[in-house]
Amino acid sequence: WLYDMQDSLISYGFATLLHSDNPNCDPHLAAQKFKTNPWMQWLLEDAELIRYGAKCIPTGGLYSQPKLYHDGALLIGDSAGMCNAENLAGIHMAIKTGMLAAETIVDAIAKDDFSANTLGGYAERYRESWAYQEHRASRNFAPSVARGLTFFGLNQPFRMITGGRGLIDNMTVHAGHTHMKKLANLPKSKREKEPFEFDGKTTFDKEHLVGFSGTHHEADQPPHLKVADTNLCATTCTEEYGNPCENFCP
């Protein structure tokens, strides 16, 4: 996307699939390379970087949605997979589910009961709302894309005339990481990343951009991600995949 905003501000970015078969897939690098386009260079001439960020979009659809209620907890917005993958839109659904959750919490306060039995009313409210109907209509979009462009092209017209169902409903999909191939199984031209020089004016490396991401934490704060066997990072992962986590993390 490229949004022209007030005060001469521009919002630029794009969405990319994370289940690439190439371990060298680098969304950050792709975004920087796009800015070398002559038209983008003209647009960004003398521009100043204000903010940088990245996030995962929960595009799995209705069939990948987790349970929405638990004892003492409700899931709304992205944490509940509330995203219309077809339109890459989720803010409106996050607001709506937040309102439905608030109504449910009011009931729980009145009953002094925050068990899943009472909070389950949230799921009922959701299923009766337009948010659910919109989510249901786009339920097979992402699984259709995951099957390849040929199937997607054939399936899309049927989705449009069947209320989102398409040729197959609730298609089987595979976890994103299972699509990744070993470097040795890729064409030689794709086994190594192409060198790229960041100019520091319109294109920037990750180390520079993290300072514009609004990230704040203690230097020695324990990481929230745990690697079960760190030896794999230095052996199998390096040898067979080239440490893809250095690439797909933007």
UniProtKB/TrEMBL annotation:
The keyword DNA-binding does not apply. Coiled coil: none annotated. Residues 1-57 form the ETF-QO/FixC ubiquinone-binding domain. Its EC number is 1.5.5.1. Residues 200-250 form the ETF-QO/FixX C-terminal domain. Its cofactor is [4Fe-4S] cluster; FAD. One of its GO terms (molecular function) is iron-sulfur cluster binding. One of its GO terms (cellular component) is mitochondrion. Keywords: Electron transport, FAD, Flavoprotein, Iron, Iron-sulfur, Metal-binding, Oxidoreductase, Transport, Ubiquinone. This is electron-transferring-flavoprotein dehydrogenase.
